[in-house]
Amino acid sequence: xxxxxxxxxxxxxxxSGSPELAEKMLQLYRKEGLEGFLDIPYGFAALAYxxxxxxxxxxxxxxxxxxxxxxxxxxxxxxxxxxxNLLQDPRNHWSFKRRSK
Length: 101
Hints:
The chain is 62% helix and 0% strand. It is built from 5 helices and no strands. The termini are far apart. Helix 2 (19-31) packs antiparallel against helix 3 (39-51). The longest helix is centred in the middle third of the chain and has 18 residues, at 55-72. By secondary structure, the protein is mainly α. The radius of gyration is 13 Å and the shape is globular. The protein has one domain.
């Protein structure tokens, strides 16, 4: 999981971060019974999809990340602001098309 997180958090030109890797990470979290911590892979999925220009999927996963954060941490947590920013305008978010080729 750490290797997946590192790849998804790598924004260099040579990064292997992708929506497919984010989906694999989601599957692994579920397989390991980490449903209470799905905000992490949901967030990576939101950024990965937005980075290839798929704002629809980015919004879906950002909202899911928010749902988990609300149950786990509450609205005051700093991570909530990350997803609020993406949801305000995914196409003007810093991640939009950051990995599109």
